[in-house]
């Protein structure tokens, strides 16, 4: 199949129509539940839940408050995705067949994460967010491996999932740090600053791994890098001001953000040149 063709593998089936409707309705429930649970309509904000364990100053790896505005873009993308995948013409789209259930699962997991945090269980939230990252990683792999079909549906899916995976990957680092802090495990022998730098370095390595694997599909790899750079950058900015200043962590976060931003660009260019040479 040509990478930019809209050729569908087979006609839409009843199972496809059931999937389309279920994903659309499930998305409405998941996004609406997440908005209510996060305090968008006057409830308790996530930053104040669980004793403030996930606030912008709870740990050295907590992103500053403006970082979370990316959720508005992610939720918008998920909403558009839910509508696009439900279009009658997209029923037999092979890429949407391969990822729609998984994307719905990720939305439900995100809503569950909010509910768990609001219930005060930081440890439980770690289990949920790790599962969420794993689900999004499955979607990422499938989108990289499957050729584009309809241009609009493919780009909406790729960009949305890329931003979602990139942001949640960074959020996972902060979530784990919050759990370790609330569990009072101490600095594990290295000190909070050193451990924060180690974790940020791991985040940078993860961003490179995403870039390498997704080199042939920049429509999804670049958004992953952008979202990770956004989150890591706001960790750095958060450590330059406010109640938890740490210049070492700030520098490490800015370096990791630069790596996350540059890696997919470099790998995508290399992949394109390799294809051109081979062709």
Automatic annotation (TrEMBL):
Q: Which UniProt keywords apply?
A: Membrane, Transmembrane, Transmembrane helix
Compartments annotated for it: namely: Membrane
Q: InterPro entries from the entry?
A: TspO/MBR-related_sf (IPR038330), TspO_MBR (IPR004307)
Q: What is its main location?
A: membrane
Membrane-related topology note: Multi-pass membrane protein
Where would you find the membrane-spanning parts of this chain? 21-47, 67-87, 99-116, 122-143, 155-180, 192-213, 220-237, 249-269
The record's listing under PANTHER family reads:
SI:CH211-161H7.5-RELATED, XK-RELATED PROTEIN
Q: Which family does it belong to?
A: Belongs to the TspO/BZRP family.
**What is the protein's name according to its record?**
Tryptophan-rich sensory protein
